[in-house]
Amino acid sequence: MRLQDYDISTRYPAQVVQSKRLSSADSVDEIREIVLDVRNNLNIDVGQHVGVLAPGQAEFGQPHHLRLYTVADIPQRLSEGTIRIHLCVKRCWYLDPYSGERYR
User: What is the DSSP string of the chain?
Assistant: First the structure.
């Protein structure tokens, strides 16, 4: 997936409040629940996707790396302008064909 294929002009500040491994420690797959507090009244529902802009690799001209996640539970309204969303994430490993680096 390429960052330029997505409209990232609307952004919402978020804070990770929990990251918990759901798969067993001896599993070859790593599945996690990540909980985010998002500000600015983001309207989102279960099954929709959120894009997270993680730091990219400046040496390859990537200020950000886009990651897409699925909302796994009903968002909670915490206070005016803040919601809590739960994401279910399977960590994937791949080799970038351009840089040759292994990502997760």
Answer: --GGGS---S---EEEEEEEE-S-TT-SSEEEEEEEEEES-----TT-EEEEEEE--GGGT-SEEEEEEEE-SPPEEEETTEEEEEEEEEE--EE-TTT--EE-
